[in-house]
Amino acid sequence: MGTITGAPSLVPTLPGRYYTDPAVFDAETRRIFERSWMCVGRADAVSQPGRFLRTEVGGESVLVVRGRDGEVRAFRNLCRHRGARLCTDESGTVGTSIRCVYHAWTYGLDGRLVAAPNMRRMPDLVKEDYGLHRLRAEQWLGYVWVNLDPDAPPLAAQVEPQVAARLSGLDVLDRYGIDRLGAATTIVYDVESNWKSIVENFTECYHCPTIHPELTAALPQFRSGYGSISGGGASLAEHVEGFSLSGKSARPRLPGLLAEDERLFQAIVLRPNAFIILVPDHVAFFRLEPQGPGHTRVVVDWLFDREAMAADDFDPSDAVAILDITNRQDFEACRRCQLGMRSSAYRGVLVPAEHIIGDFHSYYLDALGDAPATSQQPTPADTCEMGAP
Ligand code: FES
Ligand SMILES: [Fe+2]
Fold first, then answer.
1. Beta carbon of 84 within 6 Å of any ligand 1 atom
2. Distance from Cα 328 to the centre of ligand 2, integer Å
3. Which of 100, 95, 94 is nearest to 113 (CA)?
4. Whose CA is nearest to atom 4 of ligand 1?
5. How confident is the model at residue 376 (pLDDT cuts 50, 70, 90)?
6. How far apart are CA 39 and CA 59, in angstroms?
7. Is the CB of 103 under 6 A from ligand 1?
8. Angle between helices 317-340 and 195-203 (to 10 degrees)
């Protein structure tokens, strides 16, 4: 029997109801998703005036539209007359104005009410009072980020400390020129798992030797179970040319990268809903859309240099395959945990290789504030082993 010293190896993770209880998900919606900058989609989905994308941010349907002046604006997807949802398609074009299909109230691309049937018979209608509800929107890394909280600090205040902590500064991200890359492939995964399990899984590599044979073949460091949790990335295996299923590289490294990036795999979580993977010839960008306590939609874009994409022989499939296989392995593991977390006997623990997840839990519990009232029968697992209220 070994000598036990210092901090315990096994520390409790969040109680099961944090992953399964609709009351917790409702609290997360109000206190996290509706107060944070949420990554909602690619800016080039709204490349032209009149192009829109529709998304959910927390409990709200949101419309992102590029105006005639080129500005990208976000609005609640809500007609000011009697509340009809203005756009139901996921993306498309509204033309030169946004017209409600119910009684034809019509808004400019800047959200102002411009026309309504019989408007002359409503001389007291002040058009300025009935524009669309504007939301804060910013663009970064070629993505649109929306915040429902009018008082939240700017996006930079949310993301820059995370980038500094993980990649030791913004210049690493700058080198990859993510905002200039194009999306060659997008895959949407419907994952039967709580969003936090997906963040946790992306944060630790304890599972890598068990479930990721392809990934660990490319990144032997991941066989240790510690991945690159201490930062600095992981090196591609010696026999491997690039991060792809075959191990071959079909493209030169991205313009702007340094020799030191040539054989490096790096990854970052941008709480609450984005992850980025950086490899020499492409970038994978993950966006989480929490749908409910046990359901998360994960949208992954594989981003490449636009010049490389224009080549006749451009083929991203080998690069996509290694991560797609890895994602499916991860999401199946998350799904299995979701099933287990319903058990009244569930009491998860984190091993030392997973203690880094505690940083996420600290952020999460701080953002959540007071523990939400349970909407289920309390179980022994609801007792707060983590210090959560
Ligand atoms: S609800 Fe939109 S015009 Fe009436
Ligand atoms: Fe994984």
1. yes
2. 9
3. 100
4. 103
5. low
6. 15
7. yes
8. 120
The amino acid at 143? Y
Q: Which tokens hold the place of 13? A: 């993770």
pLDDT tens sequence across 251-310: 999 999 999 898 999 999 999 999 999 999 999 999 999 999 999 999 999 999 999 999
Residues 84-101 pLDDT 10s: 999 999 999 999 999 999
Per the CB < 8 A criterion, the answer to whether 169 and 163 are in contact is yes
Question: How far away, in angstroms, is 326 Cα from ligand 2 center?
Answer: 6
Q: Is the CB of 81 under 6 A from ligand 1?
A: yes
Q: Residue 385's pLDDT band (boundaries 50, 70, 90)?
A: very low
Q: Which atom of ligand 1 is nearest to the CA of 105?
A: 3
Full set of structural domains in the chain with CATH: 8-37+153-389 (3.90.380.10), 44-151 (2.102.10.10)
Whether 102 lines ligand 1, by a CB cut-off of 6 Å, is: yes
Cβ–Cβ under 8 Å, residues 105 and 64: no
